[in-house]
């Protein structure tokens, strides 16, 4: 019984029993999520869920992406039960599910229509055939560009650009005196920030994180070529302070008209095409993520999903919430509030079949195809012992991927050379897999 209720009991006798009943039956569901626009919208619309479920109260913990990952990992590995719902991704879900850290997702109501959820998304959030999270949105990566700036400069973006072409376009479209930058890319350190994008560049340049025997490959010619290209491009044609820009910072730059091109998550399309959120809504074009020597691993596959830790004391209430947040009904609510272009993408086939979505989201079919063609099982030109396009699907990657990201960010900021960054990164990656027993 809460102290306030104790006091009431003394003061007004049995009438305060109501206070006790309420506090005993109301379940508080604590949700850890990230500060991306789609999640902010979820919080905004969540009173509708609380109204329909008066016995459930939602408590939101909204964090920057890197911080969310640290907090969620600490909570799940220590079993502290701080969170009842966690926003985690295609990297963590299968690993944590396999280890018994997540509540399996079972007995979904027929109205949820699990078969409507895109199969790639379901597979990516399963381990040994068991689903461990429900996808809130699913994304690949793509190229965004300003059609008006391309027309003015007499340039034409191909459906499938190469990185050489991207560099040429960026050179022609950079005008720093007008705060117009030829290209915006992630430079902010983090395995899921700059290394998510950077790994796709390495993949398409023919590189890989490890060879078949788990020897790190960061000092290979392919890595050097890919990372030199990426660092030089950002230094020459990117915005100032690029080494601290992640997804959200670049989204702000692009939607306020500062970038001629941006290569990043397909989920940004809904925001860039939304007139309320984007100054370039009627000027933005899109193309496939660029390629260099191979199309393999040039575009990533990611899901932000809602999972329930085994340590949660409110699993039933948490399950009710994640079913609602990933339902067809929730998608309709976002469409009413923000317009069809901004609904969470990549999760449901029924969304892509809606005439309203087709009309509002000219990028829809392209995005679905990008998601369905990303191949985490065969992400590189040469064979590898791991799965994952923009990450290495082992628990140790979270740590060494971030350390490598810090070195690469240092190279963008001019604190070290690309060769120094990669030599340091190679040593870190090698040490991590050796200690973990991958190298024989």
Automatic annotation (TrEMBL):
The lineage of its organism: Bacteria, Pseudomonadati, Pseudomonadota, Betaproteobacteria, Burkholderiales. It comes from Paraburkholderia monticola. It is found in: Periplasm. Residues 1-26 form the signal peptide. This is Sugar ABC transporter substrate-binding protein. Its main location: periplasm. Gene3D superfamilies: Periplasmic binding protein-like II. The keyword Signal applies. Keywords: Signal. GO terms for cellular component: periplasmic space. Belongs to the bacterial solute-binding protein 1 family. SUPFAM superfamilies: Periplasmic binding protein-like II (SSF53850).
């Amino acid at each position: 019984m809460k102290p306030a209720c104790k006091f009431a009991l003394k003061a007004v006798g049995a009438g305060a029993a109501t206070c006790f009943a309420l506090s005993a039956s109301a379940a508080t569901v604590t949700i850890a999520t990230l500060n991306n626009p789609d999640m902010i919208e979820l919080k905004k619309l969540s009173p509708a869920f609380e109204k329909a479920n008066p016995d459930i109260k939602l408590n939101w913990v909204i964090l920057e992406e890197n911080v969310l990952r640290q907090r969620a990992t600490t909570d799940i590995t220590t079993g502290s039960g701080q969170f009842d719902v966690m926003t985690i991704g295609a990297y963590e879900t299968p690993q944590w599910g396999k280890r018994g850290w997540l509540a399996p997702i079972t007995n979904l109501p027929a109205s949820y229509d699990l078969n409507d959820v895109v199969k790639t998304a379901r597979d990516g959030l399963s381990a040994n055939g068991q689903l461990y999270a429900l996808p809130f949105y699913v994304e690949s990566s793509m190229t965004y560009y300003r059609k008006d700036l391309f027309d003015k400069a007499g340039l034409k973006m191909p459906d499938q650009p190469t990185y050489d072409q991207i560099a040429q376009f960026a050179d022609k479209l950079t005008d720093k005196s007008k705060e117009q930058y030829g290209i915006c890319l992630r430079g902010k350190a983090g395995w899921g920030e700059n290394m998510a994008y950077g790994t796709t560049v390495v993949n398409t340049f023919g590189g890989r994180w490890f060879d078949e025997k788990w020897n790190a490959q960061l000092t290979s010619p392919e890595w050097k070529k890919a990372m030199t290209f990426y660092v030089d491009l950002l230094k020459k044609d990117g915005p100032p302070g690029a080494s601290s820009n992640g997804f959200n910072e670049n989204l702000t730059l692009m939607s306020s008209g500062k970038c001629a091109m941006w290569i990043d998550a397909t989920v940004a399309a809904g925001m860039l095409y939304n007139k309320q959120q984007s100054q370039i809504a009627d000027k933005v074009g899109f193309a496939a993520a660029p390629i260099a020597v191979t199309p393999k691993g040039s575009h990533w596959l990611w899901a932000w999903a809602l999972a329930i830790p085994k340590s949660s004391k409110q699993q039933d209430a948490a399950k009710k919430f994640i079913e609602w947040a990933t339902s067809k009904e929730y998608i309709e609510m976002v469409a009413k509030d923000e317009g069809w272009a901004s609904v969470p993408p990549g999760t449901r086939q029924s969304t892509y079949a809606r005439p309203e979505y087709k009309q509002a989201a000219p990028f829809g079919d392209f995005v679905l195809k990008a998601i369905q063609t990303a191949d985490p099982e065969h992400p590189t030109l040469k064979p590898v012992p791991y799965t994952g396009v923009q990450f290495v699907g082992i628990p140790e990657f979270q740590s060494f991927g971030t350390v490598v990201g810090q070195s690469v960010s240092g190279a963008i900021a001019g604190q070290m050379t690309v060769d120094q960054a990669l030599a340091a990164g190679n040593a870190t990656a090698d040490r991590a897999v050796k200690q973990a027993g991958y190298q024989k």
